Amino acid sequence: MKKYIVVIGMVFLFSxxxxxxxxxxxxxxxxxxxxxxxxxxxxxxxxxxxFKVYNTRTNTYITEDVYKDPVWSKGRYVIISDASLxxxxxxxxxxxxxxxxPVTNTINETEFVIxxxxxxxxxxxxxxxxxxxxx
Length: 135
Description:
Elements: H1 2-15, E1 33-39, E2 49-55, E3 60-61, E4 76-81, E5 93-100, E6 107-115, E7 124-127, E8 131-133
Parallel strand pairs: 1-8
Antiparallel strand pairs: 1-4, 2-3, 2-5, 5-6, 6-7
């Protein structure tokens, strides 16, 4: 019986080791997602094609489970959420968001700077528009 208690104690001891050297923070349980809205020149929402998010620091595409915002739906797309927090640096990464205008077939690329990282509680937009007007 004592062996089991010692083994269980060791498991708890080693499982408490921090993976990252982070300052202690108090985080909320809010789930943050950062999005963008596409509109045309008549201020109408537009469903774009081929929506992609590229991280220039890591040279990789960031894939979210749901790009279209299920609440707002038409014209609203999720760039990144807390689910991908660890894919970003704490100081912020430059993300290139690209999408094709379904009317003109032109590709629109827009730059965002978004921070995250393993020691932050949530993703945070540092720079970039809330809305993109397609021409």
